[in-house]
UniProtKB/TrEMBL annotation:
Enzyme class: isomerase
Gene3D superfamilies given in the database record: HUPs, Phosphoenolpyruvate-binding domains
UniProt EC number: 5.4.2.9
Protein name: phosphoenolpyruvate mutase
Keywords: Isomerase, Nucleotidyltransferase, Pyruvate, Transferase
Matches recorded under InterPro entries: Archaeal_FAD_synthase, Cyt_trans-like, ICL/PEPM, PEnolPyrv_PMutase_core, Pyrv/PenolPyrv_kinase-like_dom, Pyrv_kinase-like_dom_sf, Rossmann-like_a/b/a_fold
GO MF terms, alphabetically ordered: nucleotidyltransferase activity; phosphoenolpyruvate mutase activity
Species of provenance: Helicobacter saguini
Annotated Cytidyltransferase-like domain residues: 4-135
Domain of life assignment: Bacteria
CDD domains given in the database record: cytidylyltransferase, ICL_PEPM
Amino acid sequence: MSADLIHPGHINILKIAHNLAKDIEKKEKIKCEVIVGLLTDKAIASYKRLPYMNYNQRKEVVENLKFVDKVIPQEVLSYEPNIRKIKPDFVVHGDDWKHGRQSITRQNVIDTLKDLGKGELIEPHYTEGISSTQLNENARAIGITTNARLSLLRRLINAKAPLRILETHNALSALIAQNASVNKNGEKIEFDGFWSSSLTDSTSRGKPDIEAVELTSRLNTINEIFEVTTKPLIYDADTGGKIEHFAFSVRSLERVGISAVIIEDKTGLKKNSLLGNDVAQEQDCVKSFCDKIRAGKLAQITTDFMIIARIESLILNKGQKDALHRAFAYRDSGADGIMIHSRHKDASEILEFLDAFRRADSSTPVVVVPTSFNDITASNLANAGANIIIYANQMLRSAFVAMSSVAQGILEHDRSKEIESKCMSIKQILSLIPGTI
């Protein structure tokens, strides 16, 4: 079980297992244990949202329930590894898995017990009127605390790959990102968090992308996003500014519940990286940028907040050697992750960097932003060693196209009838906003 939110249905299952164990003890005169296979965060995140409590917290709760003798980790969704290890007399599971995607897991249990020549599957009737899914939806509707949101990114990095992060520039775009999902081969795929882009934040305000929007203004937007969502957010801080200012920015970002900040190793007036050497851009020296990272790490209060160092070496055609040198220097200065960027149309130099970096470092999180090299999938980037994939500006870019088309259409037809097919219905947009209907 996941046992994130314990309810009467769980207790009923455990009580039945306990009674079975007692019957065996009476008949066989031997000790019989109730063992719970507790799904790890990684196992849970492979098919649904990350649990509210981490594995150790959930384990402490379950092992203190009176009907439980032992708790062991279940590393994958399949019950087979634990069943083969324990060779139980009984496997107890609610009958709610007879239908739907869990039916495959159920059949695997039946086949495994048959292969072992031992063990019986007991399936108590599903407890009516209570559901973990509904409890989770109710909890999600209430919201999430600042500290809980802040810690989510680190937990997600440890639990799954890749993390898919989508740019959001206001509360409405964040709601769309939070609710978007697809089902592939029985697996629910959704965005794991939000990206607050300096480019889209400034563009949505009609200002140039030159760090013209101050931190306070951007934090107001993020607070509006946080009021209606529950997922973690990564903040684009451009260069981070002066070292002294960056330390204060870290405190401000951490205070509102932002999970991570990304700063790039450039100096001077902000220029968009995808312009490359077409405009004057100067990369910071390694020592100075390392000092900035250290200052940020000293300023933060929690251990959950992350500072991620963005490397511009490939953007500025300085090569893999320079990029790798900086990556290890930034990591050793305290950076919690590395972002590597490229403006090439294919992902070859990104893949080359990932291969070289992963041969020396298997654990430091790596972030990539496939804006230019957009033909490679998130799954392929994850297989190459990337942890976080950020889709950095697509939401605003697509909104601009749609709104321009609608505005032009109203003028051309002198009415709105012809463009209605391009618009979301009033009912749909009202249903998207919690509490409207």
